[in-house]
Design goal:
The chain is built from eight helices and nine strands. The protein has 270 residues and is an alpha/beta fold. The strands form two sheets. The chain has a seven-stranded parallel sheet, sandwiched between helices. Strands 7-8 form a two-stranded parallel sheet. Helix 4 links the parallel strand 4 and strand 5. Helix 2 packs across helix 7.
C-alpha cells in the first residue's frame, strides 16, 4: 500500500475498496452502475460477504433472501445448528456449528478468518430470536440463547477480524425494564456493544407483519399504532439490513434503526 499515490480531492473510497472493485470487474466484467443509478447512493457492485446466525428464522430468512437478490453480495455463510435445505444459489452456504459447545466462539472465529482472508469486506449479523415462544422459556434458557449464543457468535466474529456487526433486537429494549423479554434484549445489546466493534447497527422493530409468530389481527392493529411500536413488514427489515451492509448510515460507532428508519432504508434499497 505504501506505493499507492495519496488520494486528492473529493475522494470517499479507500484505496483497498477501489482495488477490490477493480479486481471484481476484471473477474466478472463491468457491471458497475453509475452513482446516480446505484442503490443507496453509491456504486452497486462493491462486493461484500456476510456471516450470519439465525438465518433460518423468520426475519433471518428475509435477510438471507434479500442478500441473495443483491448482486454485490458475493457470499452468505449461515452458521446453523442443523442442516437445512438451501436454495440453488451457489452464493449461499451453511456451516454446522454446535452453539452449546465451549469452542463455539473459537469455531466462529476460524470461520470468520477464512472469509476475511478472501479479501472482500465481511460483515457479521445476528437475527436470532425466539418469537412468540419466549413466554415458555425460563430466564436461564432465554439468556443462554439471546446473550450466551449471540454473544459467543459476536465475540467469534470480532476475534476473526470482522469489524462491523448487525444485530436484530426489539423496540424499547433496555436492561432496566421490568418486562423480561425487553430486559433480556437490552442485556443482549449491551453484551454485543461491549465487544468493541468498529461499527454496530442495532435493529429494533416493533410488531413484525408477515412473520409466522405474529397473528394477523395483531399486525393489523399494529398499523393503527404510529411510530416505533407499530407494525413493520418483515421484508422491510430484511432489505434494511442489506441497505446497511451496502451503505452504512453511521460509518463508526453504534446506530439504532427503528421502524421509520428501516422503512426508509428499505425504500432506498428497492
Amino acid at each position: 500500500m505504501k506505493y499507492l499515490r495519496l488520494q486528492r480531492g473529493n475522494v470517499s473510497h479507500k484505496n483497498l475498496t477501489v482495488i477490490n472493485a477493480t479486481l471484481y470487474v476484471a473477474e466478472n466484467g463491468c457491471k458497475l452502475a453509475s452513482p446516480a443509478q446505484g442503490r443507496c447512493g453509491m456504486w452497486h457492485e462493491m462486493v461484500f460477504r456476510v456471516l450470519i446466525i439465525g438465518g433460518t428464522g423468520q426475519v433471518g430468512a428475509a435477510v438471507v433472501g434479500a442478500l441473495a437478490a443483491e448482486p454485490s453480495c458475493a457470499e452468505v455463510v449461515m452458521a446453523n445448528r442443523r442442516a437445512i435445505a438451501l436454495t440453488a444459489d451457489p452464493r449461499v452456504r451453511q456451516v454446522i456449528l454446535d452453539t452449546a459447545d465451549a469452542r463455539f466462539p473459537a469455531d466462529v472465529a476460524k470461520l470468520a478468518q477464512s472469509m476475511v482472508a478472501q479479501g472482500y469486506p465481511v460483515y457479521g449479523a445476528s437475527c436470532v430470536g425466539v418469537g412468540k415462544g419466549s413466554m415458555k422459556w425460563s430466564d436461564e434458557e432465554l439468556k443462554a440463547l439471546e446473550i450466551g449464543v449471540v454473544g459467543g457468535f459476536a465475540r467469534g466474529c470480532q476475534a476473526g477480524g470482522i469489524t462491523q456487526f448487525f444485530l436484530l433486537s426489539a423496540v424499547g429494549s433496555t436492561s432496566k425494564s421490568r418486562i423480561r423479554y425487553v430486559r433480556v434484549m437490552g442485556l443482549k445489546e449491551e453484551t454485543v456493544q461491549g465487544i468493541g466493534f468498529q461499527r454496530l447497527a442495532i435493529f429494533r422493530p416493533g410488531i413484525i407483519a408477515g412473520n409466522a409468530h405474529t397473528p394477523r389481527y395483531v399486525a393489523w392493529l399494529g398499523r393503527l399504532i404510529p411510530g416505533r411500536f407499530g407494525t413493520i413488514e418483515q421484508d422491510d427489515i430484511g432489505r434494511a439490513f442489506v441497505a446497511e451492509f451496502i451503505s452504512s448510515s453511521a460509518p463508526n460507532g453504534v446506530v439504532y434503526l427503528e421502524n421509520g428508519t428501516m422503512r426508509q432504508r428499505s425504500r432506498g434499497f428497492k
